[in-house]
Amino acid sequence: MRVLTGRSLRAVAKDPRVVVFSLLQPLIMLVLFSQVFGKAMMGDVASQGGSYINYLMPAILVTTGIGAAMQSGVGLVSDMKNGVIARFRALPIGMSSVLIARSLSDLVRTAVQLTVLLTVAALVFGFAPAGGLAGTLGAFCLALFVSWSLSWVFLALGAWLRKEEVMQSIGFLAMFPLMFASSAFVPIQALPDWLSVVAKINPLTYAVDASRNLSLALPTGTGVISALATSALLCAIGIAIAVRGFRRPL
């Protein structure tokens, strides 16, 4: 697993385009959402975060993790297509270690993305949540765990579907409703009635709210435990389905 994880990370590091674009995408989201919604939403979020950037950043951490998780499945399908997985099958290694290495390498990439995001948000946009370093670190770790659990869901899809185009279509189809029909960018009470109902049952809302409460030093209640438990359940299901699908002949 250590060797395979290192291989995946070196493959990314050797292609500057992948590094640049993987960092640019969440930064562009941060700039756009902070500037587009910032002044308009100040009145609605002032009581929670003090400023819109403090309210926004925990959601950006979680949504960036979801985007990175989607790339796990796409990367696995790409390895299946280019013959790397076929060569691995000829080696005396467990096939499950290939999947674990893929998830770990993507976890490292996500951690780098989130670290860059937090640094830019603090230095450029004045991100300074009430929870301080401890709360921000808690939100960071929660976003990483949610991303890692969802990466197993997309790895499972990739192991069974084995089509990059289908994977990307499913990923974008799932990602945008989850992002915008939630509490990620605006408070639920600011949404239309029918959309607020959808947002309240959206699993992303629970992850974002838990991350936001940690960052802003708000009461967490059972939110963090619920987000962790839901993510752990998704992770366990994803691992079981991914391993079974990956063992099928190419």
TrEMBL record:
GO cellular component term, pick one: ATP-binding cassette (ABC) transporter complex
Bilayer disposition of the protein: Multi-pass membrane protein
Domain ABC transmembrane type-2, chain residue ranges per copy: 17-249
Gene Ontology annotations of biological process type: response to antibiotic
Keyword Membrane: yes
GO MF annotations, alphabetized: ABC-type transporter activity
Superkingdom of the organism of origin: Bacteria
Cross-referenced Pfam families: ABC2_membrane (PF01061)
Subcellular location: Cell membrane; Membrane
Spans through the membrane: 20-40, 52-72, 111-131, 137-158, 170-190, 224-246
Record key words, sorted: Antibiotic resistance, Cell membrane, Membrane, Transmembrane, Transmembrane helix, Transport
Main location: membrane
Keyword Mitochondrion applies: no
PROSITE patterns tied to this protein: ABC_TM2
PANTHER family associated with the record: NODULATION PROTEIN J (PTHR43229)
Similarity comment: Belongs to the ABC-2 integral membrane protein family.
Protein name from the UniProt record: Transport permease protein
Organism name: Saccharopolyspora karakumensis
Lineage: Bacteria, Bacillati, Actinomycetota, Actinomycetes, Pseudonocardiales
